[in-house]
Amino acid sequence: MITLQHTRTPVVVREPAGWAVAQVLGLGVVAATAGLGPLGWAAGLAYGFATWAFLGYGMQRHRASSLGPADRVTLTRGLLVGAVTALVADRAGQDVPVALVVTLAAVALSLDWVDGQVARRTGTSTPLGARFDMEVDAFLILVLSAYVAVHMGPWVLAIGLMRYVFVAASWRFRWMNAPLPASYARKVVAAVQGIVLVVAASGLLPFAAVLTGLALASLVWSFGRDVLWLWTTAAAPVGGSRHV
């Protein structure tokens, strides 16, 4: 969960651009230590630009002149996700520095708990902050699933793609745009995906494919339950939150 400070007057958003520069510098460090080719640079820069554009647009829309402390934790996570993206894309799943990828991804996942704590303790959470936090999580899961899929099979990609399929379907079926009630089980299932994928990427466990399959099954259950709830309650307005 990240937060954004609001003002009542139009503002020029500069801070996201500064973080975009930080992403470039981070990619430079990765290139100097682990090596990074043209494809990796292209993927990392595209990710950094998309992050800058998304956050800049959101801050302008919400008239936010600066980022809060939790926002900066989430953006730090975003920088790590950008590095993971560049490494995985550069090597196409082959000869990837596994220890580096796993370490960066694990730290990014750990910081997800930190930014949530910061947001709650400062009492400054916002819908935009929550959305940005969710997008960082979702993209990291997508990248990790693509990496693990190279070794386990394309079925693993379903973990990373499921949320995006859900969003695409909501564009076609308006009843899927209704807000969902808060669910602790949904949050647990979402968190499990990242943990399992990091473990699978590390190659340390002999039965990682079984764990990954169970994680996918839990995700199918979670999305299936939400879709069924949306379908059966389509005619009645219900308060809650979108799928995370």
TrEMBL record:
GO process annotations (BP): phospholipid biosynthetic process
Xref: Gene3D superfamilies: 1.20.120.1760
InterPro entries: CDP-OH_P_trans, CDP-OH_PTrfase_TM_dom, CDP_ALCOHOL_P_TRANSF_CS
Keyword terms: Membrane, Transferase, Transmembrane, Transmembrane helix
Transmembrane feature ranges: 12-33, 138-167, 188-221
Example of a GO cellular component annotation carried by this entry: membrane
Keyword field contains Transferase: yes
A Gene Ontology molecular function term of the record: phosphotransferase activity, for other substituted phosphate groups
Family: Belongs to the CDP-alcohol phosphatidyltransferase class-I family.
Protein's name according to its UniProt entry: CDP-alcohol phosphatidyltransferase
Taxonomic classification: Bacteria, Bacillati, Actinomycetota, Actinomycetes, Pseudonocardiales
